[in-house]
Structure formats: structure tokens, C-alpha cells
Amino acid sequence: MIHQYRLNGYNMVLDVPSGSIHVVDELSFRAIELLDQGLSQEEVRARLSEEKLGEKEELLSVLSDIEELKARGRLFSQEAYEEKALDLKSRSTVVKALCLHVAHTCNLNCEYCFAAQGKFHGQAALMSFETGKRALDFLIENSGTRRNLEVDFFGGEPLMNFGVCKDLVAYARSIEKEKGKNFRFTLTTNGVGITDEVIEWANRECYNVVLSLDGRKEVNDRFRKDSTGAGSYDRIVPLFQKLVANRGDKNYYMRGTFTHYNTDFTNDLFHMADDLGFTELSMEPVVAKKGDPCALTEEDLPVLFEQYELLAKDMLRREREGKPITFYHYMIDLAHGPCIYKRISGCGSGTEYMAVTPWGDLYPCHQFVGEEKYKLGDIWQGVTNTALRDEFKLCNVYARPACQDCWAKFYCSGGCAANALHAQGDIHGIYEYGCELFRKRMECALMMKAAQALDPELAEK
Amino acid sequence: MEHIKTLNTRDLAQSAVNGGCGECQTSCQSGIAQQC
């Protein structure tokens, strides 16, 4: 399978099975296009002559280059990975990460919240230290020989249970050496509860912090309000700035959500970068039911595509000027990225990754919490619904019929099971709108890689 | 090659032979495309 596109002056050719990426001239672009349509070399040569795209010698040279790449398995390569997907069920998996829902309550009342204002369509609740401690023990017991273990403090708003977060980290640190483990904690917060003590703790103990901010004040405050209806921007921005200023070179992400009301979301990213001084950015499409006023529409798609392209070009400009910013979805490692097994099997939800509710129930991930039929078990008895776990083991790119002809399948690994469930009622489905956005983001990210490799000014940096 | 520049990418067919150790992190898209 081949995918070709033009972007920002680059003619891109992707060979999907091998993962190869080529940047080609006009003549090669057309030749590959014709070969992909099933024309023979002779027919391609004749057609290119007709189209006056090059001299005979040049045409022969292009076709020779293509043949060489083909012989090396880098172009028109064959896909033979489906059997690997079937192996996945028999592989024993270890638990690598837990999402701890330490608080099913929130001090904001964001209208678009997928977690229903942090309560996940249930009762407000806080996780006790004993439950959290047992969750960490469960992770250690089920992680095999794996050393690095990831734990996310999530909610709701986790800082509404900050004492338990602190105690759990202290507990983990007290046992990790003896158990041969290294805990890496992440905090996702709306910022309202940030204090000097939180900053000191998060910057010492958390490997990553995810800070929720939607961008410009009027955009953020449209949805991110407290219970009195007051916007949160003025309260949280100075706290986020203080936390990041004290964070040194440790990971953080500003994590925004864009909706139908701000399809010009690059302005929010640029506001965070240029006016607020944040460089590590992410901006995600809202997850909302069709018909909801904030939901993204089909008419929004061309605008969003244009925005993603604008962002990629602007990021290259910033890089040339020595002031780069990071965008979560444009971070991609071509040379040292994941193997085909990882690319087939996806994010790990339900097998390597689970969410723990405040009362200790296990779910495949945070987006399934509250959907009773997706309960896997609990932290005392472990995974008791092994049929469901096996279903998630096999919930890979080859289990989704809609993915088979998609060029991006080895970048997204079949997409998000929760999004598929909410869009099509089936974890083996797809969320087509999300796929459209993902493909555009990948095209932009790969174009940026081409620019960074081939533009002398960027390659130097 | 004069007409075609190939970027430095991991060969997925080769990774089917060497890969699969399972040491990589979990990865939420809300990413996979991971240090190995």
C-alpha cells in the first residue's frame, strides 16, 4: 500500500508495510502514482512521455530508482503482519500502567467534560489511601519483571485528594527499591488547587504533568467555569506559569480542548506559546455527542485541516528562528519508533493499562469508567472478566475492518477503543471523524520530518 | 538517488524479526508513533 500527498512544497510517498518515507520530485511522484494504479513499467514510460514530464533518459533513471527501492523492500512492499496480530492473544501481557481515579469530584464544572463533571455518571467519591496502596501493590504483583511502572493521578480533579496522592507517592518510593521497580507518576490537573506545596511536590515527584488550559481567555472561560459560572483562566494561568517556571527540564504538557466554537485553535496554541510562555502544547478535539452545540461538524473539517497545516508550517518557522515549540501530535520518532507488534496492538488499554475507580474497580481505561459491562475486576481479586481482557488483547488494527485500507493504520494502531465504542457502539469500530483528523495530523508531522531532514537550515539545527 | 530522497525510518519488516519485547510504554492518543 502506497500513500502519496503534497504539502508545503514536499512530494511525499509513504510505503505503508515497510514504514518507508520518500520525498520525491514531480516525475517520480507521477511515476509511482501510475505504477500504483497497476500500469506496467512500459505503460508508465509511455504515459510520462505523453505528459512531457521528462526526457527519455530521465524517465529511465526514475524507473530504475523505483525498481531499486522495490528490490530493497522500501517501495511497493508486501504486508505480511496479520498473523502477528493473532499471536497477540497467546502472548502473556504484564500490567505496565494504572490510571488512579483518586477523585470522582471536581472544583470546576466544565460543560464539555466527558467524565460528567468528574463524577463519571455516578456518585462523588475520593479514593482512600488503603485503596490506592492496594492498587500500587496490584501493579507491582502484575508487572512481571518490568522495572518502569507508570501511574497517573487522574479524576475528576486529583488535587482534591492531594493528601492521598502525596501518601501514595511516599509509599511507592518506600518500596520501589526493594521490589526492583521505578515508579513514574503523572498528574493531570485543572490548576485550581495548585499551591506552592503542590508545585514543589509535582516538580520533585512527577515525571510528567498535564495542565488543562484551552487557550485564549474567552475560549477557556466559555466552558471551563466553576460552580458559580465564573471562568477559571485568571485563577489558573499564573499558577501554571509558576509551576512550569520551577519545573526545569522535566516534562509537562499544556492540554487544551477545542470545540466547534474555536475551530481556529492555532490561535489558542500561539497564545499559550507567545503570550504565556508555554512551549509544550497539545490541543485535542472535543468528545461530544452529535448535535451538541460544541460538537465538531463535517463543515468544520476543512477548517481544521487548514489549521493543522498552518500549525506545522509555523512550527518550522519557529524552529528556524531558534524558538521551537512542541505539539503532542507532531512528535514522532521515525528511526527509533515502535516495532510492528506495538503498531498493531495499540495503546494497551484493558491489558497493559487499566483505570482504577475510587473504590478499587478495574476498567480498561479512564474513558470506560462508569460503563458497568466494561468492568474487568478489582484490585483485590484482579482481572476476573478474562473474556473482556482477551477481547481487548485482540482489539488491534487487524480486528477493525475499516482500518484495512487505511494508510495510517501503523501510526494510529486502529485508534481509540473508547472513541469507537462511543461512535459506533463497538470497540472494534472506528470513530471516522477522529480518523480524518489523525490522518491530517500525520501528514503534517511527516512533512515536518521531511523538512527537518532536507531543509539545510533545519537539518543544521 | 537524484529523484528520490528516502528518510531514515525503522524498517517495519525487520522489526517483526527483532521486535515484540514488550518493554515499551502504554500510550494514549488523547502517543504510539514511542522510543524503542
Describe how the helices and strands are arranged.
The complex is a heterodimer of chains A (461) and B (36).
Chain A: E1 2-7, E2 10-15, E3 20-24, H1 26-36, H2 41-50, H3 56-71, H4 82-90, E4 97-104, E5 125-126, H5 129-141, E6 148-155, H6 162-179, E7 182-189, H7 196-205, E8 206-212, H8 217-223, H9 233-245, E9 251-258, H10 266-275, E10 280-285, H11 301-320, E11 326-327, H12 340-345, E12 353-356, E13 361-363, E14 377-378, E15 382-383, H13 386-393, H14 409-412, H15 417-424, H16 432-454, H17 456-460
Parallel strand pairs in A: 4-6, 4-12, 6-7, 7-8, 8-9, 9-10, 10-11
Antiparallel strand pairs in A: 1-2, 2-3, 4-5, 12-13, 13-14, 14-15
Chain B: E1 4-6, H1 12-18
Structural class of chain A: alpha/beta
Oligomeric composition of the shown chains: heterodimer
Number of helical stretches of at least 4 residues of chain B:
1
Estimate the strand proportion of chain A: 15-25%
Q: Uncertain regions of chain A: pLDDT < 50 for 5+ in a row?
A: none
Apparent shape of chain A? globular
Mean pLDDT of chain A: 91
The residue ranges of chain B in which pLDDT falls below 50 over 5 or more consecutive positions are: none
First and last CA, distance of chain A = 33 Å
The greatest inter-chain interface is formed by: A-B, 69 and 33 residues
Indicate the radius of gyration of chain B in whole angstroms: 14 Å
